[in-house]
Design goal:
This protein has about 150 residues and is of the alpha+beta class. The chain has four helices and three strands. It has a domain of about 80 residues. Helix 2 runs antiparallel to helix 3 and helix 3 runs antiparallel to helix 4. The relative contact order is 0.19.
């Protein structure tokens, strides 16, 4: 259910962007954050933009299947890790929907200062990044509980 909700939130944000923002024109929101609608034909930071859309779709599907497998391997007691997997999968599906339907991914969030700008990204990218951070943090510091509820030595 969470995966569907995260994918839907991403798609709703992109629908709003497509209907509301001019293409490749910065629209200030707060001093360090702007909206900037653009299209990414690659994956994160425009890597693999020379790959065909179908190759990127296949790569995304493989990644989703792998993360689903990891999710199934995790214990139900690993609540944060499992939430992280839901974020990653929901975000990946959100970007996959764009790539299949449009041949590119809609990006629109831009962090910046007067002399520096971070890569432009979207809600799905945020879900993937936050989800990966939660998984890593929980795996490193969360500790694992056994079936009895006790933390193993």
């Amino acid at each position: 259910m969470l995966v569907i909700m995260f994918s839907a939130l991403d798609q709703l944000s992109k629908y709003w962007v497509e209907k509301s923002l001019p293409f490749q024109q910065q629209v200030g929101f707060i001093p360090f954050l702007s909206w900037f609608r653009t299209y990414n034909e690659g994956i994160a930071f425009s890597f693999f933009s020379s790959f065909s859309s179908w190759a990127l779709i296949a790569l995304t599907v493989i990644i989703i299947i792998f993360v689903l497998w990891l999710w199934k391997q995790s214990s139900r007691t690993q609540v944060f890790t499992r939430f992280g997997y839901a974020l990653v999968i929901g975000g990946a599906i959100g970007n996959l929907i764009d790539r299949v339907a449009l041949g590119y991914v809609i990006d629109f969030v831009q962090f910046h200062t007067s002399s520096w700008s971070f890569a432009i990204f979207n809600v799905a990218d945020s879900f993937i990044t936050v989800g990966a951070a939660i998984i890593i943090f929980d795996e490193l510091f969360g500790g694992r509980q056994s079936a009895s509820g006790k933390i193993p030595n």
